[in-house]
Design a protein that fits this description.
Structural class: alpha+beta
Largest sheet: 5 strands, mixed
Shape: extended
Distance between the termini: 83 Å
Number of helices: 7
Order of helices and strands: HHEEHHEEEEEEHHEEH
Strand order of the largest sheet: 5-6-4-3-7
Radius of gyration: 27 Å
């Protein structure tokens, strides 16, 4: 072994280590730090934090809930879209979606005995499908916004706000479709909560409500579209969570839906609320990327400044 060559190689490696340590370990971070101090970029580098009266109330990049201790919407605030990030939503440490997809249409029922004993639906084992979550949110929002009976209707939803889904049992053809129903069950409407399913008959067979403990998985799952309009009055972003669960924006359509409620709670006219709303409406990025949005945190902070409430 040539000791001289070995030493030369080790010395070259050590010099490379020292040079890259200075460049990447000190130089590059210092450069990025200096760039972050440039006026107009400093706030973004700090996390786009929003301060009101010297107190940080959040980041304009991360959504948050505007609800009371029981989870009910505060009427003086515009509401954000749903969030599946964390147990209470909008948890930056638990960013993510619900992992439920288009095929999530059948609920897991809760135990009626536990519900009768006073347990919550989730503690009793109830797990709503994505479809039922969307249906129930739509009905709830229509009620909150005073939109009138039936305004929260959506395709494939019952009037009560659950997924309109049947389990159709009977002989099947070669493709697996039921050719002659012998029994039909509304799987998302337990008998403990309804005596009359959303549909009376399906292909001549009376529809039953679901009974806890019975297995209907041998039936063909059939969602029923119903008579709801193709374009529901409650926008999609009002009833679905974003992929990150942290989206700080809502659509202009969902914001407009909330104007009357917020105006009433703040004792001002809807036009006054719309004037503030227009300031926080952003168009498409570069004129064609994405959709117009409204930043909920910025909007609510400005409303608190201009039209404060005591509640």
């Amino acid at each position: 072994m040539n000791i001289t060559n070995t030493l030369r190689q080790h010395w070259a490696a050590l010099r490379a280590l020292l040079i890259f340590t200075v460049i990447l370990g000190f130089g590059y971070p210092l450069l990025i730090w200096l760039v972050a101090l440039i006026p107009g970029l400093h706030g973004k580098a700090e996390g786009s934090l929003l301060s009101v009266a010297g107190k940080t109330v959040g980041s304009t990049l991360i959504g948050q809930s505007f609800t009371d201790s029981s989870g009910s919407p505060l009427p003086q605030y515009f509401q954000s879209r749903p969030s599946a990030a964390g147990s209470n939503g909008y948890d930056p440490t638990a960013s993510g979606g619900s992992n439920l997809g288009p095929e999530s249409v059948v609920d897991t029922p809760g135990d009626p005995a536990q519900l009768a004993a006073g347990k919550t639906a989730s503690d009793a084992g109830f797990k709503p499908s994505l479809l039922t979550q969307i249906c129930s949110r739509s009905v709830s929002i229509a009620t909150t916004e005073g939109m009138g009976e039936g305004a929260g209707a959506r395709p494939f939803c019952t009037g009560g706000g659950v997924g309109a889904v049947l389990s159709v049992i009977g002989p099947r053809d070669a493709r697996g479709y039921v050719i002659r129903p012998t029994r039909v069950i509304s799987v998302n409407e337990p008998c403990a909560t309804t005596k009359q399913p959303f549909l009376d008959f399906y292909e001549g067979v009376r529809v039953e409500c679901a009974k806890f403990g019975e297995d209907y998985s041998n039936g063909q799952v059939v969602p029923i579209r119903g008579a709801a309009p193709d374009s529901p009055q409650v926008p999609a972003d009002a009833v679905t969570a974003s992929g990150s669960g942290l989206d700080p924006h809502i659509s202009p359509a969902y914001a407009e839906l909330q104007v009357s409620r917020v105006a009433k709670a703040r004792h001002v006219s809807p036009d006054q609320i719309r004037a503030v709303l227009a300031r926080y409406r952003d168009g498409r990025a570069l004129g064609f990327f994405g959709e117009p949005t409204v930043n909920v945190l910025q909007l609510n902070a400005e409303l608190d400044h201009r039209f404060p409430t005591t509640s």
